[in-house]
Design the sequence.
């Protein structure tokens, strides 16, 4: 889908300053004459391909990834078509720059690199007028909203308003990976303060300089925001992103059955991980029902993955109680077992009768898991003794080090392959370079939510689904797994090549829409050719003709 050239009377400098409409030096001679651009641009008329080449050369000559991020965001702020053309055509190179791992550093430096506001900032000061703030957004047809309160940004913790880089980055991937129209995307920061004292003491901090609100005022602000979204943007899907564990689980429970919403940290991470597990089983030649999973970390991501694994096992005929006993968790206090009295509510369903274990290595030796999944945000927790123990207990251990950004990874690809002597199925949350060991090159797969959430969003938007269900995430996981080729597996990669991400997203969107139509979750009639319909909804960042 090409962006429709509705200029709304814009011409001259006003047109050049609209990132959705601006073409920069690619405005043709005829357009320059008709739209009052003559003299406002250098005389050379460039093609979009020439502009892309210039952008790539500039990006590659920057001195650091943070500088590359700043440059690319500035491009997004002045010419969205060109930004997305660069990202879509060079997704493997660009995704680590516009999202993980670089976005983590960008959030930490947010106050210093802030240039132009992007998205909406809604703070505790705005209670009673949230609807008015949403009405300030210039685009009426909002379909995808990513909202955060900044409490759990990646594995970095509470960054307050500095976490706005996450909704901006997520929505850029909705567009780049799945073709959701840029004008239909809205990033939102709910500023309820921060408990990060160094950030509050930073004289450059741009958010509320107060401790984080956790009481009735917080709930009232969230409720007012959700209600205003429902009123002003009735076809929008609301994605909760990077909330703290306590709020994330309860907000999902509260709103999941009422509005079109999901939590990517809980559900999206689960879907992409389950897909990787299915692919890993094609390498290890095992069955899902034969696996024992050990999670290092019992927060949103870990519990979400565990719940989806339980659903997958139940679909294969495993009783729920048995399915849950295949999933074990280690948190900061040790193995999650029933005898513990300090467990949060979301951990209780996976607390089993078993002697305790003080740490991860002790748990590995006691449980002998076949798959180990890191979602703790604790760097180095997959130590050499832990990885070697996994390799000793399994002919092909599966090790997923999923914490982001790279500085929080449980282990590196090089460590995992080296300590297991190449005999491991490895995936990570952040990208790692290829590893050559004993004459063989391994290409580690990236267990990136971008394989899943853009396609889910596209499917929900395209069919105007009223709800996002767990069945949709299961459909996304199974669809993604089928798209992993034998060539991918031969290289040790349990996910498709990122260059195929738009095809992956389209396939997931089709699967999600099928669930919505099957379950009566939309008032739309299913198109005669759903695949053609979904592809027709996808935005193409090629310049339109204005005259």
Sequence:
């Amino acid at each position: 889908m090409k962006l429709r050239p509705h200029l709304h009377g814009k011409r001259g400098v006003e047109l050049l300053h609209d990132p959705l409409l601006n073409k920069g030096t690619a405005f043709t001679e005829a357009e320059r004459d008709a739209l009052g651009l003559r003299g406002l641009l250098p005389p050379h008329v460039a093609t979009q391909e020439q502009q892309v080449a210039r952008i790539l050369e500039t990006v590659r000559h920057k001195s650091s990834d943070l500088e590359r991020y700043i440059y690319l965001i500035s491009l997004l702020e002045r010419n969205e078509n060109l930004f997305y053309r660069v990202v879509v055509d060079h997704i493997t190179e660009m995704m680590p720059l516009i999202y993980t791992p670089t976005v983590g550093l960008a959030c930490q430096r947010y106050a210093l690199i802030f240039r132009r506001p992007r998205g909406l900032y809604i703070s505790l000061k705005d209670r009673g007028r949230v609807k008015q703030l949403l009405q300030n957004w210039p685009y009426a047809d909002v379909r995808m909203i990513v909202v955060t309160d900044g409490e759990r940004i990646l594995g970095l913790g509470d960054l307050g308003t500095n976490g706005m880089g996450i909704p901006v980055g997520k929505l850029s991937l909705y567009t780049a990976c799945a073709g959701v129209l840029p004008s239909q995307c809205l990033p939102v920061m709910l500023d309820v303060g921060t408990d990060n004292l160094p950030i509050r003491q930073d004289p450059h901090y741009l958010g509320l300089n107060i401790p984080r609100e956790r009481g009735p005022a917080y709930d009232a602000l969230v409720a007012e925001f959700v209600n205003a979204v429902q009123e002003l943007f009735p076809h929008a899907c609301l994605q909760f992103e990077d909330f703290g564990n306590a709020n994330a689980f309860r907000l999902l429970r509260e709103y999941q059955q009422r509005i079109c919403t999901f939590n990517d940290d809980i559900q999206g991470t689960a879907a992409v991980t389950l897909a990787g597990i299915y692919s890993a089983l094609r390498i290890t030649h095992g069955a899902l029902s034969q696996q024992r999973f050990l999670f290092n970390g019992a927060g949103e991501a870990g519990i979400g993955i565990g719940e989806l694994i339980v659903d997958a096992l139940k679909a294969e005929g495993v009783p729920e109680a048995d399915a849950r006993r295949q999933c074990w968790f280690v948190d900061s206090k040790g193995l999650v077992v029933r005898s513990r009295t300090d467990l949060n509510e979301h951990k209780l369903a996976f607390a089993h009768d078993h002697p305790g274990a003080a740490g991860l290595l002790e748990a590995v030796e006691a449980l002998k898991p076949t798959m180990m999944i890191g979602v703790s945000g604790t760097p180095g927790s997959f130590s050499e003794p832990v990885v070697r123990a996994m390799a000793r207990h399994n002919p092909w251990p599966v090790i997923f080090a999923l914490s982001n950004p790279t500085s929080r990874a449980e282990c590196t690809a090089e460590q995992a392959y080296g300590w297991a002597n190449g005999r491991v199925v490895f995936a990570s949350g952040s990208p790692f370079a290829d590893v050559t060991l004993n004459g063989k090159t391994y290409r580690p797969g990236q267990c990136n939510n971008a394989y899943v959430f853009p396609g889910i969003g596209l499917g929900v938007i395209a069919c105007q689904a009223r709800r996002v269900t767990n069945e949709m995430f299961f459909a996304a996981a199974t669809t993604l797994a089928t798209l992993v080729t034998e060539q991918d597996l031969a290289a040790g990669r349990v996910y498709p090549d990122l260059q195929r991400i738009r095809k992956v997203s389209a396939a997931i969107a089709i699967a999600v829409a099928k669930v919505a139509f099957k379950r009566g979750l939309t008032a739309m009639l299913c198109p005669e050719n759903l695949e053609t319909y979904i592809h027709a909804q996808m935005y193409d960042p090629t310049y339109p003709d204005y005259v």
